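Handout for the seminar on molecular recognition.
Each group receives one record of this type.
Step one: identify the two inputs.
Step two: read the structure output and locate the region that could contact adenosine-5'-triphosphate.
Step three: write two sentences on what you found, then compare them with the reference statements printed after the record.
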Amino acid sequence: MRHSSTAPRLTRIRGELAIPASDLANALSERIVGQPAAVEAIVPYVQMYQAGLAPEGRPAGVFLLLGPTGTGKTRTVEALAEVLHGSEKNVLKVDCGEFQMEHEVAKLIGAPPGYLGHRETQPLLNQQRLNSVTSDRCSLALVLFDEIEKAAPSFTRLLLGILDKGILRLGDNTTVNFERSLVFMTSNLGARRMMKELRPDFGFEASVERPLADSHRKLESIAMASVRRRFSPEFVNRIDRVITYRPLDEEALAEILDQHIADLQRYLEERLGPRAFSIEVPPDSRRRLLREGASPEYGARELKRTLQRRLTQPLAALVVGGKVEPGARLSLDFDREQERFFLRAL
Ligand SMILES: Nc1ncnc2c1ncn2[C@@H]1O[C@H](COP(=O)(O)OP(=O)(O)OP(=O)(O)O)[C@@H](O)[C@H]1O
Ligand SMILES: [Mg+2]
């Protein structure tokens, strides 16, 4: 639950929220660290929608997000939901890994009337669920199809219908209209080959030496080649923008850690109110946390968990044991000799 430090200016066009492009870009860049291509690609589609200029008969924007794990693909959609709707939860998320078998696809659209299980199978996607992720600020629904490469072929055909006509026909013959939505698909296709490409200069320092633009172009072409091998040309042609996420460098990972620590502090204040206390994490400890929780292979994926293990859990133990005074200041220090973190009252 991240709070905006720069709240975007909000005006309305025909009752619809309208955010100036620069404000939207700033609010997103703050939340999605080190992925300027993602922000640049998405902002114009939100603007077209808000101006009432999005094309009819198809979703307002279709994006394919590619790249290594833990680099911010899913986070991007959550961050956009936070900025547009005020909560990162305003996303209709479909985990395509749950639809690997043909028979599972009925879960998505519901079984046709008369079929066994017709009454029990409430479709996962229906108009009501789509509408429920919009808000009174903004009528644009964000839909996330995660890991599309795992889905069964019939699922991909349904998806093609959504991208092509903006319509999904359900088992009971009703339809879901996606014209007021942005569709995001994520995939790890090509990610392994991308990591191999990066491996010669694995490690942070080396990757800075190589011209970044070059290696980024190379990653893009690896990703696109894998996508073309897996999906039909009709499918690929209906994607508005393919965004290739970059591996996060040391600076980006450090910024993400800073955000997590700031989030934790805010969370403490919210939850504990007058009993809250403050935490400090000196630079040396931050370096240790980064070494433990971040890597070119897993990106920032383990960072939150590392912080939880090294900071939140020991803090919880102190709180439960009544060992922290309200208003106290605690520092998360690292003992180099014993190679362990410890909390110290300041
Ligand atoms: N670029 C980023 N900016 C801010 N936070 C990030 C970024 N990348 C990763 N994170 C942090 O790491 C967590 C995992 O990232 P995310 O879920 O977006 O990875 P992903 O790219 O979708 O990976 P996967 O391919 O494994 O699904 C996020 O919840 C967020 O806390
Ligand atoms: Mg993801």
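Reference statements: The chain has a mean pLDDT of 88. Residues 250-272 form the longest helix (23 residues).
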